[in-house]
Structures are given as structure tokens and as C-alpha cells.
TrEMBL record:
Species assigned in the record: Haloferula helveola
Family of the protein in this entry: Belongs to the peptidase M20 family.
Family matches, as PANTHER family: ALLANTOATE AMIDOHYDROLASE, ALLANTOATE DEIMINASE-RELATED
Keywords: Hydrolase
Domain spans labelled Peptidase M20 dimerisation: 216-316
This protein's name: Allantoate amidohydrolase
Source lineage: Bacteria, Pseudomonadati, Verrucomicrobiota, Verrucomicrobiia, Verrucomicrobiales
SUPFAM superfamilies in UniProt: Bacterial exopeptidase dimerisation domain, Zn-dependent exopeptidases
Length: 417
């Protein structure tokens, strides 16, 4: 029988959210729990204690993914994994991946308190560095066997801190991450609840989304190199202004998306750094980022080709040189039909207002899809706000999402209909 609304304690879940939000809280109201920072490690320890209090067996793998296990009746059956992440961007809100982890914890508490034993192990996982401080989804990529020695040796954060040094600073051996790979035969599926991080559900006044697919994305770091020169004595036609190359390219983005993209395509220049950076000097170098997303990898490849052509044309026209470095390429994935069906059935049974939709943000589920079938549940983000202290989801919507998650777990781990 599917658990009723009384099964989930929104008061207990809310208390957990508030408690974890204080770890890394700053005076500006934001949460600063970036991957492998001191606050991140304190948060991991806090979570482990909560897992133990809930009756779960706890462990950490070589990537410092925190895992809590509820044992099932069949030790040989592939485990059902539930999870997300608790690391944050700088000046973050209190939900993001954290809500998925703590909702999973609440669901497992309900199961333990009911006295029932699932047919398979259920594991709650908080993956390390989903926010990509070091360029990728380090924890889930390690779990999926997608990292190499070069990942550990060369990965740095935007401030130049090396992954290897950051892990050593908090007492971790970074090379142990190479041993975090999980045998896919031991994992039967993965469920993740997350805030939408967009305005669709909030605008439609719906409580839950069943996610059908997760966008792919690629990130490049691009450099235009020109010639620094005096701002007052260098005539405009004789300038090799690196920033003008960025400006030209920014104006090309709508055309590139119209001609080569789809309705799901997104492209963003998120950071620009100019050198020398003096008010009275023509910029000789401009380094900027481009983040491009779509749910179809063929479209992603077409957009990448169109971007390269645009950059080359601008460089020729402006007398510049350009180079680019691929920081990441994450393939889009479709959620597994069997798991989507279970989530959909749980949403119907819970009586919540819901829809199906695609995810425009990347998540650990995307990486986990290389290991096992995956499905995702979204809850609304008020006004679409995320990655800021203004990020919020009303408690009744959080409770609705938790009920759907619990129902999906029960259908998958207990064989309920």
C-alpha cells in the first residue's frame, strides 16, 4: 500500500534543511559550502550523523561521496540509489541538490519507522562537487568510472586552486577517487529529486514535474588575442581590440541558435576577463566562457561547429587570433521509461498537480545514466530563482515532491503498484 501524506514529516524535513543551511552560512545570507571546503566537509559529517540516526549504514568512497545504506532482504539484488549533492555555488540558497539528499533521507526514515524491509538495498548518496568547482561533476563521475589520473592532476577551480591540493587540504587522498567506480551490476536504478531552477512549475502553479530528459551541455573557455595599445592615441580603424571580438560574438549568438539550434537550445557568455584591464588601454586579450545546452547531442555538435565558424570569421575581420579549450562536454540523456512510469504512477497516487518536462540544467542523474536507469522529480522554484539566497520552494510543494519520491521508492524497492 502506498504511504499516505502522514508518512512524510515536513516539519522534520524542514528542520533538516534549516540545520544544514547554517553550515557555510555567511553574513550576506548566502550559503558557501563549495566542494572540498571546510564547510563542505562539516556538512558531510553532519549528514553522516543524520544517516546513522535514521538507522542507515554509512560510508564514504574514494571521491568522498557520502553513502547511507538501508539493507534489503536480497543481498545479491542490485541496489536502488537515491541522491543528489550538498555542495553549493558561492552565495547559494538552501535547497538546490540539498533538498534531494534530505528528501531521500526523510523517505528512508519513513521506511525504517514503518518496520518494513525492502527487497533490495536502498542507498542514499550525496555526491561530491556536483556544482563543478573543479570543472565537472566529480563525485558522480568518479562513481561512474569517468575520471582519470589527468582529471586529478590537472583540474583547477576558477581561482586556480588545484583539485589535488584542495582534497589534500581537508585530509583526503585524491588518488583514492580512482577507486570509487561502482560496478554497474550492483546498481539497479537511480532516483533524484531537485528543485526545477526555472520558472515553469511556479508559473503554472504545479507542484511536481516528472522529468523525461536531461539537457546536455558543453563549456568552452575562449581567448581572443589582439594588441594592447593606448586608448587615446590609437585610431579606431587601426585597433586590434580583443573585447570587440567578444562583443561581435555575443551579437552572433541569437543567429547561431536560430539557424543551428532547437527550441531547447541555450547559450550563455557567463564570464569575461580583459587584459591588461586598464581603463585607458585597448584590451589586448579577452578570455571568456560559453555555456551551450540542448537535449539532442546532434544539435549540440551543430552548435559547436557554428560557434567555431563565427569565432574564426570575427577573428579575421578584427585582426585577432582565437583559441578555445573544451572544459566539459556532458551528453544529454533520456530518463528510463520504466522508472518514469513508476514516478508518474506515484504522482497520480499522491494526487499532486504535476506535468512532464525536460531539465534545462545538468544533474548527477545525467552521469548516473551511464551506470543504471535513472529518473528525476522536480519541485517548483519560486519565480524561477536558484543559485542565490532568494531560492525557495513552498513547504507544501516540498511535501508533494517527497510524497512522490517515497511512492516511487516503494514501487521500485518493494514491488508495490
Amino acid at each position: 500500500m502506498v504511504a499516505t501524506k502522514a508518512g512524510i514529516s515536513i516539519d522534520r524535513l524542514g528542520a533538516d534543511l534549516r540545520a544544514l543551511a547554517e553550515i557555510g552560512r555567511a553574513e550576506d545570507g548566502g550559503v558557501y559550502r563549495m566542494a572540498f571546503s571546510e564547510a563542505d566537509m562539516v556538512g558531510k559529517s553532519w549528514l553522516e550523523e543524520k544517516m546513522k540516526d535514521a538507522g542507515l549504514e554509512t560510508s564514504r568512497d574514494g571521491a568522498c561521496n557520502v553513502i547511507g545504506k538501508l539493507r534489503g532482504t536480497d543481498p545479491d539484488a542490485p541496489a536502488l540509489l537515491v541522491g543528489s549533492h550538498i555542495d553549493t555555488v558561492p552565495c547559494a540558497g538552501i535547497l538546490d541538490g540539498t533538498l534531494g539528499v534530505l528528501t531521500g533521507l526523510e523517505c528512508l526514515r519513513v521506511i525504517v519507522e514503518s518496520g518494513r524491509t525492502p527487497a533490495c538495498d536502498i542507498e542514499l548518496v550525496a555526491f561530491s562537487d556536483e556544482e563543478g568547482r573543479f570543472g565537472g561533476m566529480f563525485g558522480s563521475q568518479a562513481f561512474a568510472g569517468q575520471i582519470t589520473p589527468d582529471t586529478i592532476h590537472s583540474a583547477t577551480d576558477p581561482g586556480g586552486v588545484r583539485l589535488e591540493d584542495a582534497m589534500k587540504e581537508v585530509g583526503l587522498d585524491p588518488w583514492q577517487a580512482l577507486q570509487a567506480r561502482r560496478d554497474p551490476k550492483t546498481v539497479g536504478g537511480y532516483l533524484e529529486l531537485h528543485i526545477e531552477q526555472g520558472p515553469v512549475l511556479s508559473t503554472a502553479e504545479e507542484q511536481v514535474a516528472v522529468v523525461d530528459a536531461i539537457t546536455g551541455l558543453f563549456k568552452w573557455s575562449i581567448t581572443f588575442s589582439g594588441e594592447p595599445n593606448h586608448a587615446g592615441t590609437t585610431p579606431m580603424p587601426l585597433r586590434r581590440d580583443a573585447f570587440m571580438g567578444v562583443a561581435d560574438f555575443a551579437h552572433e549568438i541569437p543567429r547561431i541558435l536560430d539557424e543551428n539550434g532547437s527550441d531547447c537550445s541555450r547559450a550563455t557568455i557567463g564570464r569575461v576577463e580583459l587584459t591588461p584591464g586598464s581603463p585607458n588601454t585597448v584590451p589586448g586579450e579577452a578570455v571568456f566562457t560559453i555555456d551551450v545546452r540542448d537535449t539532442d547531442e546532434t544539435v549540440m555538435n551543430e552548435l559547436a561547429g557554428a560557434i567555431r565558424k563565427a569565432l574564426a570569421a570575427i577573428a579575421r575581420r578584427r585582426g585577432l587570433r582565437f583559441t578555445y579549450h573544451v572544459e566539459s562536454w556532458i551528453k544529454p540523456v533520456a530518463c528510463h521509461p520504466r522508472l518514469v512510469e513508476k514516478v508518474d504512477a506515484a504522482a497520480q497516487a499522491a494526487g499532486v498537480r504535476y506535468r512532464h518536462m525536460e531539465s534545462g540544467a545538468a544533474h548527477d542523474a545525467q552521469i548516473m545514466a551511464s551506470v543504471c536507469p535513472v529518473a528525476m522529480i522536480f519541485v517548483p522554484s519560486v519565480d524561477g530563482k536558484s543559485h542565490s539566497p532568494a531560492e525557495w520552494t513552498p513547504y507544501d510543494d516540498i511535501e508533494a515532491g517527497a510524497k512522490v519520491m517515497l511512492g516511487a521508492i516503494e514501487r521500485l524497492a518493494f514491488g508495490e503498484s
